[in-house]
Every structure is written in structure tokens, then in C-alpha cells.
Design brief:
The protein is mainly alpha-helical. 64% of the residues lie in helices and 0% in strands. Helix 7 packs across helix 8. 31% of the residues are buried. The N terminus is likely disordered.
Length: 225
């Protein structure tokens, strides 16, 4: 009977709440202990749910970790598809995408670290990690091709390779800032990445025209859209 619930949503509201509680508890345990050191008993203890109930919803620690990682992928996808306000220029769209990705990575930094540690040893999670990364890279690819069609971006670049390298630049910057605590000026980080990205695809770089605007807790500007 338990196996019936593994691939679908629990059939009752109470079941859905329990499952959600287990996923959140699992995320917190993985963030604190890492994947290898986390035990199912620690997850259920944090969740305040009986040990045996875990197996009503998940058949293993791997399964709940996969669920946690899927949630992260969803958050990163939402950030990647967060469109700049209508009428925004090409460079400002790059600036917006860069800042949205950095904020999303910051909010998920601890669990991203665990996913990156686990991925090389577990093919299933390596695939999921590449999917998470691919969300941002695909956004760069589609944006660059649109700019090429508009006659703004260079047409003599390999779009896929360029997007992968530009995405890697921003990704590594996020890793250094939010996993290793490298000191940074948010404005300098965003503008430098924007300048390199814009020039990398053949755009004329335009410095920001707007004022500094309100800031979030890491010093990044908050934006609509």
C-alpha cells in the first residue's frame, strides 16, 4: 500500500502536509550534515513524524533528496524565466537575468553545495544538477538568439558554447560569493558580469541608467518582473 504513494501525491490533505514536512526537514538535515551523513531517523526526528511513516511517502533517503533537489530546480527555473519589465533594453535584460540568478543561488546556496558534492558520485543526481544548470544556460541561449534575430548580437559566435561559458562565469561567481563567502560589492559584481556578458555576445555595453533602488538583504537591487 505504501508503494502506491511513492510516485504520486498523497491522497489526503493530512498526507500532503506530512510529506511536505518531511521534505522540508530533509532539506534542513542535508544542508547541515551533507548527504552521506544524513539518516532517515534524523529527518523524521526533525519533522516530528514516526520513523515508519517516512516509508509511506519515500522508499529511501535518495528519493527524498531527489524531491528536495527538484524543488531547488523549480526555484531556479522560476528565477531563470523571470522576465524583465516590458520595454527593457538588451543590456538591462542581461543585468536583470544576472541579478535574478545570483539571488536565487544565494537563497539556495547551502543545498546547492550538497547537490554539487553528491552529483559526481551519483549519476541520477548528476543529471538533475545538469538540468538545474541547464535552465539558466537555456535562458541565455534563447535570449542571445532573439538578439541575433533583432540584429543586435553578433552572428559569428557559437551560441551554445558562449551561453555555457557565460552561465559558468555567473555560476562560479555565485559559488564564490555564497558558498565561500568572498567579499563583494553587489553593484560591481552585477555590472562586471553584465559588461562581460554583453560584450561576449557582441552588444554595446551601456551602463545602468536607473538609480540604485531598494536593496535586499544581500545588497542586490530588488526589481519588479
Amino acid at each position: 500500500m505504501g508503494k502506491q504513494t511513492l510516485t504520486g501525491r498523497p491522497p489526503t490533505e493530512r498526507g500532503r502536509r506530512k510529506r511536505s514536512t518531511l521534505v522540508q526537514a530533509a532539506r534542513e538535515e542535508f544542508e547541515e550534515r551533507g548527504f552521506e551523513e544524513t539518516r532517515v531517523a534524523q529527518i523524521t526526528g526533525r519533522a516530528g513524524i514516526a520513523y515508519g511513516s517516512f516509508y509511506t511517502y519515500f522508499d529511501s533517503k535518495d528519493e527524498v533528496f531527489h524531491e528536495v533537489a527538484k524543488g531547488v530546480a523549480g526555484e531556479m527555473f522560476d528565477a531563470a524565466r523571470s522576465a524583465a519589465p516590458p520595454g527593457t533594453g538588451a543590456v538591462d535584460r542581461i543585468r536583470h537575468a544576472t541579478e535574478r540568478f545570483l539571488v536565487a543561488y544565494r537563497d539556495n546556496a547551502r543545498i546547492m553545495q550538497v547537490i554539487e558534492q553528491v552529483s559526481p558520485r551519483h549519476p541520477r543526481f548528476r543529471t538533475l544538477f545538469l538540468e538545474i544548470r541547464g535552465l539558466f544556460v537555456d535562458r541565455i541561449i534563447s535570449g542571445t538568439r532573439r538578439l541575433q534575430e533583432e540584429g543586435l548580437a553578433s552572428t559569428d559566435i557559437d551560441v551554445e558554447a558562449t551561453a555555457s561559458m557565460l552561465g559558468g562565469m555567473v555560476e562560479h561567481t555565485a559559488r564564490m560569493l555564497f558558498l565561500y563567502g568572498e567579499e563583494h560589492d553587489p553593484d560591481v559584481v552585477v555590472e562586471t558580469a553584465t559588461r562581460l556578458w554583453a560584450r561576449g555576445i557582441g552588444l554595446e555595453y551601456e551602463p545602468p541608467g536607473a538609480g540604485p533602488g531598494p536593496r535586499d538583504r544581500s545588497g542586490f537591487r530588488t526589481r519588479s518582473g
